[in-house]
């Protein structure tokens, strides 16, 4: 972001926290998978929670990684039709598309709380943790993606190759 005001520093800090969190989740996933493989094939003793923990960590890493990909404009775009328009029209179409995505993300965040309330009593099968924990990744990921998309809509991020119109 161009200016180094409070909001800019806050957003930069949020991005660093997300990057660090994803890195830590992936590191824990690697250790967890190695532990599961070692215990199963070397010790011939399966540790029940390793598969479940790996699955939930991957879900969290995926949703948080989506936030970072959205910021960088790294998500897959189908531009065959959009590329037929002149650059000014492409920017308008991309703005409208981002606006629609932001509304969709907001709907996901709002409606996810209803589902989270119903999951309070449900426990995971191996680790016996509340299922709210893995499912909360959807809420957190959608909320953070909505923030990033809003910043894009307001022109807060410089255009990347993926987000800029080919001129």
Order of helix and strand elements from N to C terminus:
HHHH
Number of helices: 4
What structural category do the secondary elements indicate?
mainly alpha
Helicity level: 55-70%
Strand coverage percent: under 5%
Report the span from N to C terminus.
Answer: 22 Å
Structural summary, described in words:
- The protein is mostly helical and 167 residues long.
- The protein has one domain (6-153).
- The chain is 68% helix and 0% strand.
- It has helices at residues 6-41, 49-72, 87-118, 132-153.
- Helix 3 packs antiparallel against helix 4 (132-153).
- The chain starts with 5 loop residues before the first helix and ends in a 14-residue tail after the last helix.
- The model has no long low-confidence stretch (mean pLDDT 88).
Please render the helix and strand layout as text:
Elements: H1 6-41, H2 49-72, H3 87-118, H4 132-153
Helix pairs in contact: 1-2, 2-4, 3-4
Key structural traits:
167 residues; 0% strand; mainly alpha; 4 helices; single chain; 68% helix
What's a concise summary of this model?
The chain is an all-alpha fold. The chain has helices spanning 6-41, 49-72, 87-118, 132-153.
């Amino acid at each position: 972001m161009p200016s180094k005001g409070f909001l800019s520093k806050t957003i930069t800090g949020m991005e660093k926290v997300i990057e660090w969190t994803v890195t830590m989740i992936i590191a824990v996933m690697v250790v967890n998978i190695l532990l599961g493989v070692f215990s199963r094939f070397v010790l011939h003793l399966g540790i029940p929670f390793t598969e479940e923990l790996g699955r939930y960590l991957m879900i969290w890493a995926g949703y948080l990684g989506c936030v970072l990909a959205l910021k960088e404009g790294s998500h897959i775009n189908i531009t065959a039709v959009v590329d037929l328009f002149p650059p000014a029209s492409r920017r308008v179409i991309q703005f409208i598309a981002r606006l629609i995505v932001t509304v969709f993300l907001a709907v996901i965040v709002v409606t996810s709380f209803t589902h989270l309330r119903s999951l309070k009593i449900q426990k995971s099968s191996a680790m016996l943790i509340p299922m709210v924990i893995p499912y909360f990744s959807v809420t957190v990921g959608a909320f953070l993606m909505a923030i990033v998309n809003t910043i894009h809509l307001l022109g807060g991020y410089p255009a990347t190759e993926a987000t800029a119109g080919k001129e």
